[in-house]
Amino acid sequence: MAEKAAARAEAARLVAAFRAAGAVEVEADILQPAEVLLDLYGEDIRARAYVTADPLRGEMMLRPDFTVPVVQMHMAEGAEPARYCYSGEVFRKQEHPTARRAEYVQVGYEVFERDNPVAADAEVFALFARLLAPLGLRAATGDIAILTAAVRGLKTLETRKAALLRHIWRPRRFTELLERFGGQAPVPPSRAALLAMLAAGDRPETGPHLGLRSEAEISTRLAALVEDAKAPPISAEEVGRLEDLLNLEAPSPAALAHLRDLARDLPAIAPAVDRMEARLDALARAGIDVGKLAFEASHGRTTLEYYDGFVFSFHAADPELPPVASGGRYDALTEVLGQGRSIPAVGGIIRPGLVADLGGLA
């Protein structure tokens, strides 16, 4: 009880600060329709969601996060520029009894802004940095847009690029695919056997048609496997440059300089690198010491899959603790939920329970 009271006290301070920054406080139902959320949150939270069946409303979920419900609300009401804040419990299953809490309070701040997304990125990060400054946390940043641009710029089949993009948030699977597409790993035995059968003019026997895929979809999939087998591997140079990007960790100015060098051979990333430079300028104007701000190109690859640009987090010294705060840009999410409308958006959440555990903001 004392822990919850301390978390709620910190949450009240944070909400007051967000309201002072111009946000309107909103709420979201604890029980949310599961169908859309399961599609949008990604594998990590999908596996950890509390899902139940309602006799009238169908499959429902205890909210694992606020962002998607807030975006749904905003897009339904017109998708105009706005700032929101919120506070309440979220629920996520944990695999081990000593792991993170399954129920905890989350406080957040979301900005929907058309005119200057880079300035909005800087606004959210700088606000969080100022509020959390008493805790002496370590900040880390990244940019999913640079990674996705690099993958889209590869000289290879669109199906390969689509597979890599789908698995950006699963680093191990991404690495396995990159090694296979680059000719550095053998084709799995089951696929090799299937390809040999197709090369001989045979089609695998599948018995009565079952499942969600039609016969036409199965044929298309088999044709894509054959096309992939015949395509040349991604060049070692391209694989090397992509690995160089994925492994990049440096203070932001040094990272920016390295990315400029990489862009000479990976021109597809140049627009995203331009946005990064503009964002660093905006952060500096907002009072952030960008010379000490860490940039990790792979940052955000194990978080929510709806982030598609700038990502950030704030960490305590204890590596066993989850991030005290995290967030990022999610422009594509507004388009998915907007039914024809979209608006650039960025936001973040803070765990007030962790803030209290670390000494609080008062």
Topology readout:
Layout: H1 2-20, E1 24-25, E2 31-33, H2 34-40, H3 43-48, E3 51-54, E4 58-62, H4 67-76, E5 82-91, E6 103-112, H5 117-132, E7 138-143, H6 144-152, H7 158-166, H8 171-181, H9 189-199, H10 215-230, H11 236-246, E8 249-251, H12 252-265, H13 270-285, E9 294-296, E10 310-315, E11 325-329, H14 331-337, E12 345-350, H15 352-357
Parallel strand pairs: 1-5, 7-9
Antiparallel strand pairs: 2-4, 3-4, 5-6, 6-12, 7-10, 8-9, 10-11, 11-12
Helix pairs in contact: 5-13, 7-8, 12-13
Give the termini distance in whole angstroms.
Answer: 20 Å
Number of E strands: 12
The class by helix and strand makeup works out as alpha+beta
Question: In percent terms, what proportion of residues is strand?
Answer: 15-25%
CATH class of one domain: Alpha Beta
Report strand order across the widest sheet.
Answer: 1-5-6-12-11-10-7-9-8
Label the overall shape: globular
CATH architecture of one domain: 2-Layer Sandwich
Oligomer: single chain
Structure report:
This protein has 362 residues and is an alpha+beta fold. Among the domains are: 1-115 and 334-362, Bira Bifunctional Protein, Domain 2 (BirA Bifunctional Protein, domain 2, 2-Layer Sandwich); 157-205 and 214-234, no CATH class. The chain is built from 15 helices and twelve strands. It has helices at 2-20, 34-40, 43-48, 67-76, 117-132, 144-152, 158-166, 171-181, 189-199, 215-230, 236-246, 252-265, 270-285, 331-337, 352-357; strands spanning 24-25, 31-33, 51-54, 58-62, 82-91, 103-112, 138-143, 249-251, 294-296, 310-315, 325-329, 345-350. It has a nine-stranded mixed beta sheet, sandwiched between helices. The longest helix is centred in the N-terminal third of the chain and has 19 residues, at 2-20. The radius of gyration is 22 Å and the shape is globular. 37% of the residues are buried. The mean pLDDT is 88.
